[in-house]
Each structure stands twice: as structure tokens, then as C-alpha cells.
Amino acid sequence: MRGRLTHAQLKVMSAIEACRTAELGGYVARCANPACGHTTIAYCSCRNRHCPRCQGSQARAWLEARKAELLQVPYFHVVFTLPPRVAAIAYQNKAVIYDLLFKASAETLLTIAADPKRLGVKIGFTSVLHTWGSAMTHHPHVHMIVPGGGISLDGTRWIGSTEDFLLPVPVLTRMFRGKMLAMLKAAHAEGRLEFFGPHAALADKAAFKSYLEPLYDTQWHVYAKRPFAGPEQVLAYLARYTHRVAISNKRLIGMDEKGVTFTYKDYRIEGPDRYKTMTLEPGEFIRRFMLHVLPKGFHRIRHYGLLARSPTKAETLARARELIAAAAPPKPPHTKQEPTDGGDAKVETPAHPCPCCGAPMVIIETFEAGMTPRHRPSAPATAIRIDTS
User: Fold this and answer.
1) Which tens digit of pLDDT belongs to each residue from 141-180?
2) Which of 12, 55, 59, 152 lies at a C-alpha separation of 20 to 30 Å from 300?
3) Helix and strand tally (H, E) in the chain?
4) Is residue 348 part of a domain?
5) Domain containing residue 148
6) Is 104 domain-assigned?
7) Alpha carbons 319 and 4: distance in angstroms, whole number
8) What is the distance between the alpha carbons of residues 164 and 173, in angstroms, rounded to a whole number?
9) How much is the average pLDDT of 58-80?
10) Residue 349's pLDDT is what?
11) In total, how many domains does the chain have?
């Protein structure tokens, strides 16, 4: 199988194999309570963005930065999906076609929202690329988290959407399809697409045009979910989606020489019966996981419109909050109850508490990759994790 993997995929495999092992070095931590003295070893994380173990701390740091951008309005969840015919050639052209997926979906949302016959506003949103289905098959799509409304085109007021409706999905679908197909043809004409194996003939302009032609008459999938209950729910949702990889450790049920068994969701079925298990031969499991390794430097999380990265982003969000406050009905004053001198004080929990007594754990030694620490643990090394990210 090694001969079939790209250099990027081999690097991902090596990083995951070494993650939180002595190969990457680590720390020795000891309880600050002298009466306890519990000692443990924590190995360094690989911090690879495809590693299931390393996404938790990265997601938390990213979410902290996003808190300052939340607006006090309903949020919607919109999904744009590439049809299988395009997904098939996207795998051979990840950097180009995934980028076009971002652009086509973003331009569609920005254009329709700015249409005076729709909302007639400048909106902002965050897009997150996922390339997998629940069974780890290749299924490229973008999830968008969209505030319910935007700043009017003249910049004087905030115009909100209705409580359960953002923009018409059929209109979004038609424009997305047209933009994506036009961008694919342009990329082909510019020589930016490559084709191998069964798709090698698509290098010819006429063959490529014929390949795309049926897609003008097929149904493309654009999905808009109900709005979230509030900004806190948005953050909770983002925590699950932004730094997700093709499969998480909690979905793994078992593995042996015969295969790897994991849970997956069959979206064709409603209700509890949609949750099923699947066993794949080890080589096939690794192949499916490696399908979703992104090109080096490719950004899978992007911000658009009011949320686009720019020198004036902070001012734009401040202006949006002013307009939202002006458009919202006044709320009754809320008096925060201050604790009295005799009240219970809040006890701060240590960032890394001792699993035995709860006192803080203190790093007493660091050791380089491949080295053996001088101190020995008084419990298994997995008793505590020191976050090195």
C-alpha cells in the first residue's frame, strides 16, 4: 500500500502513529500537593490537522477567537454539496475544485442575499469544508454558519430574516449549479485540471464538456437547516464541525487482523435505525481515511462578507451590533446578583488537576523526542494529558 500513498498522506500516517508517544518527547508532571506526589507522563501531540486526537484543543482555541464575532441574532446552517460526477474528478484535483466549491457557494449566498427582491443585505458567514460521508466515502460539501440577516446595502440599518427562513433553497441551488459548472469549464480551459486513470480522456475539451452536460439537468443538493436557538448553540455546533476529521476515535468499536469496525449513519433512513456498524478490511479502512487528506496549505475554514478577514473587520462587526441593537425591541433591565461577603465563593479548578486529589499538576521535567524521562510515573501515562498545543 505504501507505493499508492502520496507524500502528504505518508506524512499524515507518520504523524498519527507517533502522536502522544515517546517518539515525540513529552513532559513529566507531579502533583503540587506534597502529601500526594502523584506523578505521570504526558507525551506530546503531533498537532496534525488530520489527527483525530489533536483536534479538541485546536477547536477550543479557535472557538475562543470566534466568541468575539458572534452576533445576537438567529443563526442558520446551510450546506452546499458537489454531485458525485463532480466529486469523482475533485479527488484528482483537490486544491482546485475544493477551492471552486468554496467560491461558488460563497458567491451564491452573497449574491442572493444582496438581491433587493430577497433580503437586500450584505451578509457574513463561516464556511467549513468536509470531504467525507459517514462511511468515510468521498463526499465533498461545505457547511455554512450564517447569521439571520445583514447590513442594508446603504449601510444604515440591520435587516433580519424571518425566524425560520433565510433564503429560498431552489434559487440558491440553481445559481450554485450554474456558477460551479461555469468555474469548472474556466479551470479546464486554463489548464488547471488534471485527469488520470478512467478520467484521462477528460483532458480533451469536448470530452470534458460532454461529461458536464448531464449536470445541468440533475438535482444538486443545497440544504438549509432550521436556525439555532442562539449564539451559544452556534458555538456548540461549531465545536463539533470545524475541526472534525473523517472519523473520530469514539466511533471506533473494535479492530483485529480481519478488519476495523465502526459506527456510521445511514442518511437514507429516519429514526434510530439509521445508526449502523460497518467492518472494513484494514487496508480499505486506511484507504478511505487517506481519501480526505487535504493539500498542504489548503484552508478548510474560511470567512466571507461581514466576517471576511480584513483590517476593518472589527469596525464592521461593531457597526453590525449597533444596527442590531437599534432594530431590536428594548429589553427589561437585568440586575446581576452580586455575592455577599457570607456567600459561597467560586473555587477555581486547576487547568490540569491531579486525578488523585484534585490539586494542580506541575511540570517537573521535559524530555526530547526518543528520550527516556528520568522520573517514573506512579500511575499509567494515560492518567492525565498535558495539552502541548
Assistant:
1) 999 989 999 999 999 999 998 877 889 999 999 999 999 9
2) 152
3) 9, 14
4) no
5) 55-246+293-326
6) yes
7) 52
8) 19
9) 83
10) 59
11) 2
185 and 262, same domain (yes or no): no
Q: Cα angle at 196 between 191 and 197, to 5 degrees?
A: 155
DSSP 300-349: SEEEEETTS-STTHHHHHHHHHHHHHHHSPPPPP----PPPTTSPPPPPP
Contact predicate 148/73, CB 8 Å: yes
C-alpha cell, 31: 502533583
Alpha helices in 26-125 (DSSP H): 55-67, 84-90, 94-114
Q: Tens digit of pLDDT for each residue in 185-207?
A: 999 999 999 999 999 999 999 99
380: how many CB neighbours lie within 10 A of its CB? Answer: 9
CA atoms within 13 A on the CB side of 359: 13
Q: How many CB atoms are closer than 10 A to CB 178?
A: 14
* Residue 161: strand, helix, or coil: coil
Instruction: Please report how many Cα atoms fall inside a 13 Å half-sphere around the Cα of residue 361, on the Cβ side.
Output: 25
CA gap 80, 105 in Å, rounded: 7
Query: Rounded CA gap, 50 and 73, in Å?
Result: 33
300 near 127, Cβ under 8 Å? no
Other beta carbons within 10 angstroms of residue 295's beta carbon come to 13
Q: Are residues 162 and 311 in the same domain?
A: yes
* Complete edge-to-edge strand list for the sheet that includes strand 259-265: 252-256, 259-265, 275-280
- The DSSP string of 35-61 is TT--EEEEEPP---TT-GGGHHHHHHH
199: nearest Cα among 86, 289, 82: 86
Residue of 357, 360, 358, 386 whose CA lies nearest to 28:
386
Rounded to the nearest 5 degrees, what angle is found at the Cα of 250, between the Cα atoms of 248 and 255?
A: 90
Cα 92 off chain centre by = 22
Arithmetic mean of pLDDT, 311-332: 85
| 104/156 same-domain check | yes
User: What residues form DSSP beta bridges with 280?
Assistant: 260
